[in-house]
Amino acid sequence: MRTSLLVALLGLAHCFASAQKTIKPYPDELLVTPEKSNFEKTTTHGELLQFLDRLAARSPYLHRIVLGKSHMGKEIPLVILANPKITSAAEAKASGKPVVYVQGNIHAGEVEGKEIIQQLLRSILLGPDAHLLDNQILVFVPMYNTDGNDKMAKGLRPTQENSPLETGERENGQGLDLNRDGIKTEAPETRALMDVILNGWDPQMMVDLHTTNGSWHGYSLTWAPGYLSAGEAGPYHYVNDKVLPSITQNLDRNLGLKLGPFGDFTTREGWPPKRFFTYNHHPRYLINQMGLRNRMSILSEAFAHERFYQRMHSTYAFVHEILSWCNQHAKEVWQINAAADKAAMESVLQGAGKTKKGVRFKMVAQAKPLAPFRSYEFQAFTTANGNTQWNRTGRIVNYDSVPYYADFKDTLAVTLPRGYVIPAAFAAVAQQVKQLGGRVDTLRKATVFVGEEFRVEQYTKAKRAFEGHNMASAEGVYAPREYKAAAGDFLVDLAQPLANLLFYALEPQSDDGLLVWNFYDGFFADKDLTKGPQAFPVFRYFSEKNNLNLQHGKSKKQSKQ
Ligand SMILES: [Zn+2]
Predict the structure, then answer these.
(1) Which pTM value belongs to this model?
(2) Residue 60 alpha carbon to ligand 1 centre in Å
(3) Among 36, 109, 399, 533, whose Cα sits 20 to 30 Å from the Cα of 490?
(4) Which one is the CATH code of 36-348: 2.160.10.10, 3.40.630.10, 3.30.70.20, 3.40.50.300?
């Protein structure tokens, strides 16, 4: 017994010794703030800049630029890791390697992403993870919401167990939630993200790092893909059916970490949970918008009720696995997205005027329930007036089969147009299409289009404001007609890679389009719809009438392909 124990111990000691030999210790000035403070503190803006300076001084593979300035004028650092080093999006494209983008701190109270990105940078540039640059280019924004970050206070994240002791604020300096801004792009942070990253570096995969708001499921981290609504199915199925299940399995096997899909339940429906449901499909959320852009994306939500060091650990492990996956499957990721680009354009070229496509969606249960579903157990008590009250216990249980609401089924579909004519007077709409990354042409002479007019019978605005908006919706009927567009009007030919996103943004009945975000309030302000329907100003065309005098360059060429 003793001898074998001794041999085992010696073997173990040998293991540690050889592991230590291969990993060079980091200098202590490369500790991140939580590591230096027994996980009581989180990194400030100034500390992050200092950390990045120190890394840059030690590695030839780091390039740093400024993503943009926040509403309050605070610089948002962006770090590019590549071997060999590159300094521009054009070089990234020419390299043939996909770009993977990881973003931390969009909600500045959810601080794990910001911390673990620094740890990952350290490990890739100076530690054992140099291989993660073999087949991919990594773009990191550790602190997306720089305005919110330094407004440190206690109690801003009541579900986070006072760990760290203080955190930043959820919103940016305008009081906006940066993860509801993807369509209206009112924050300078969002516009910078669109210009520099989404439409510049064009990442094939985006990872957005959050922490949950309080549901007591039993997972250390929950995830979600960009949900499938009017987008292409390829990237969604790859992430949802392949990448995420595989990573979940690996982390359970290798680290004993339990990960699961993102969601909430309510004890109002009794216990065990009747269903677990996710958030919705709207492209105002950046992760969902990536789906409409034919790109892959993953939402990461650390479990708020674990301690800070545990949340950092699970987030680090998860992102590390995603980067490993993309590094190993770089070509596959790229090809699936390229096929989605092609499919989006092809469906317009082939299906305009024929195919129907969803513009409003509802959440429905997936075909397969969650089995098992892992959760803290709740116990029933009866109040004096006979009501049932559910109290959480500390016991984690697995349930056999809980329906998972994370599919989206259309409740309204409209005929896919070839494109839209935006009258010159609606330049703000055309500008927003460009801001999202769409191509907009200007008509050089009057042109007749054949398509459908949307006749608005009802225009409603929400009584309660959300993100500073009384959100709007329109009901009405579609009527076939010819439409004479004038020289100077804007034309959005949907036969372009962002077809699905532009369709979603421009359709008047879309549940997260420009109409919802009040882009047409001015138009409807003086219209009395009780006297009769009103033609919606943006015309949806199926074709140009005689196909002779279309003067908008590229679109003409593409329509002949
Ligand atoms: Zn969040």
Answers:
(1) 0.93
(2) 33
(3) 533
(4) 3.40.630.10
